[in-house]
Each structure stands twice: as structure tokens, then as C-alpha cells.
Amino acid sequence: MPEDPPGAIDRLCTDAVRDSPASPYDAWRELSATHPEAVQLGVGFPFTDAFPTEELAAATNEILRKEPEALQYGGSEAADSLPGAIADHVGRRGLAVGADDLIVTGGASRAIDTIADVFLEPGRVVFTEEATFPSAVTYFRDHGAAVAGCALDREGLDVAALGDDLARRERTGEDLPTLLYTIPTFQNPTGTTLPEKRREALLDLATEYDFAILEDDAYGALRYDGESVPPLAAMDRERPGPDRVIHVGTAAKTIAPGVRIGWVIAPEAVSEEIERRHAGAANSFVRSAVARYLAEESFEERVAKLCESYRSRRDHMLEALEGEMPSHIGWTEPDGGFFVWVTLPDGIDAEAMLPTAAAAGVIYMPGSAFYPNEGGENRLRISFSTGSPAETERAVAALARTIESA
């Protein structure tokens, strides 16, 4: 935190707040403000033109006319129908649950923070992928947990390396994880998807070493190519023994981030605690409007439209990378999600290169922003979710020139 005059109330903040490092987004925000002309590839935003504004406006007006109790404590009949629509959506992806099995939350990030509240405290350890969603790391550390990164490769979490690390920790008496946080499908920031065989092996490790798994499925519905892979939570429910996976989903990428609607599907043993801590956090009026909208256009109809657009945007980016990038640069080719993960030669620091890139006309997110500890200096994340084809081509060309001159 910045230094304030003597007596400023920041001295009353918790140690976790006072000792927190600068946000990885700080440099990105500053450069975005000073270079508004640069093409923005750093953010993982949905493209604004895809928001169902007219449909949500109609649904909102109908709720206000017919169900004004949606503005009251406790919600409305429409809000109560939302879990059923979500259950149908996740069921089509292989996770068979009923409406009563869902906890509707005020967004996925709030859900992750609530789950951290249930599982983490000082002295406990949480494992994440070595490059991961930075806000999740902040939530885990705010609860006093130590965060350890696990190796990734081109297929996502390196489960064999994870097994070796767990065995070493057990052998040496080092702390084992209470929780493992993973984004197994179209991972942020790498875009990779964990194969089914590795998912099964990960569930085996969770049983053997007695930890819970937090599955962040923010991008899982946005598949453009390839065969679908069942969510970890679906596989977990088919296995003998107690369930270990807490599944978090969101409407941010499929409807709009501003509706702040997420959901949790958790083992019965902990679902009541999660729901109790999250009580009142979901906006009942927005839930009502979204439920009314989904009565007219289902998640599946909505997702099909989005996937067609995002597939085209991804293809434009991959074609631009192929045409512009030097031969010694590597990148992932995701089957879904929003992101491409670029690997630079050793010795090129993506964070140090960012101001030059911004001046050249492109802003990206440095790889080091996604590492819970250290690493990722020669990597960067670019998003294809918002740019037009012309903007993407211009941005990738600017990035290639910047790399060649680094």
C-alpha cells in the first residue's frame, strides 16, 4: 500500500492488506490510460456487442411490472427459477445436478473467496497451477494460506510432477495442501485443457493425499473445436468414496460480467457452510431478470452464438501469429476460452518490454502477473475475445516488431 501521512487509518488495516504486493494489473492500467490508441489484448473481457442488452432490458421491465417483489429481501419466483436453468446448462456438459444442488453466487470471484473462507486459514497450504488467475491467489493469501505453484505443460497441470511433489512433501514432513485450485478447461492464462486421463489421476491424488479440489470452470462452456471433456466434478461424482471437488461456474463469459452471477456445486458435507457464508451476496433482482431472459433464450442457444463469433476471433489471431511472429516464438492454440499464451526466448522480459509494445500499438498482460510466486518473465498472455480482425492483425504485427527489436 502507498505511504500515507502519520495517523492515516491505513495503519489499522490487517497485516495481509498492508503487506500485499502491488496488483499485477497496475502497470497494465497505467499503460492503458497513457496509450488509449493501443489495441488492448491484455484483458479477458467478453466483446461488448455480444451482450444481450435488448433481451435483458425486456426481461427487466417485465420483472418490474409483474414481480416487484424481486426488489424486496428474499427475491421472487423468477429468481427461484434460476438454479433450474443453471442445472440444465451444466447437465448438458455432463455434470448432472438438481436445482437444489446449486448455490447461486454474486459472481465466480466472490464464490472463490467464500470457498477460501471455508477451507483456508494461517498455516494451511493451497496449490495452484504455476500460472493462474491472480485474484484467486489474492483471496487465498488474504485467508493466511501459503500458495505453492504446480508445473504446467502443453496439456495443462502436470499431474505426474504434482504426484512427485506430494510424495516428496510427505516424505520430508513438509505441509501437504488442504486445497488445490485449478482451471482445467481452457485455462487462464494458458488456454490449455487437462485431458480426461490426467483428470482421473488428479482425483486419485486428491484421495491419496486427502485434499479438496476447487474447479474453476469460467471458460468451460466456450468450446470451439475438439471433443468435450467432462468437468472434474462430474468425474468425481462417478467415483466411489466421498466427493472432493467444489465446482465454480459463472455467467460472466456467456451472458455478461456485469450481472455478477456465478454458482457453486459442492459436496453435501460443505455446501451448507458455503451457502451460509454467501447468504445475501447474490443480487435477487438481477437473478430475477436473468432468469426471465433465460426463459426466452436458453444458455445453450446463447453459447452457440458466442462460440461461432469467438471461434472466428481465435482463428484470426492464430493466423496473424503464424504470419507475423518470428520462427523462434511459441504459442498455444486453444480449443476454447479467450486466451493465447506466448513464450518468448529466454532473456526477454515481457513485463520490461510492455512499455515499448504499448508505444508500438499493443498492450498485453505479462506472464509474471499470473505466477503466485516467481516465474513467467519470458511469457505473455494475449486475448482474442474483444478485438476486430483488423485490430488483431495490427496488434499482432506490432507485438512481432517489438519482440524482434527486444
From TrEMBL:
Its cofactor is pyridoxal 5'-phosphate. It comes from Saliphagus infecundisoli. Residues 39-399 form the Aminotransferase class I/classII large domain. It comes from the Archaea. GO terms for molecular function: transaminase activity. Keywords: Aminotransferase, Pyridoxal phosphate, Transferase. This is PLP-dependent aminotransferase family protein. InterPro entries: Aminotransferase_I/II_large (IPR004839), Class-I_PLP-dep_aminotransf (IPR050859), PyrdxlP-dep_Trfase (IPR015424), PyrdxlP-dep_Trfase_major (IPR015421), PyrdxlP-dep_Trfase_small (IPR015422).
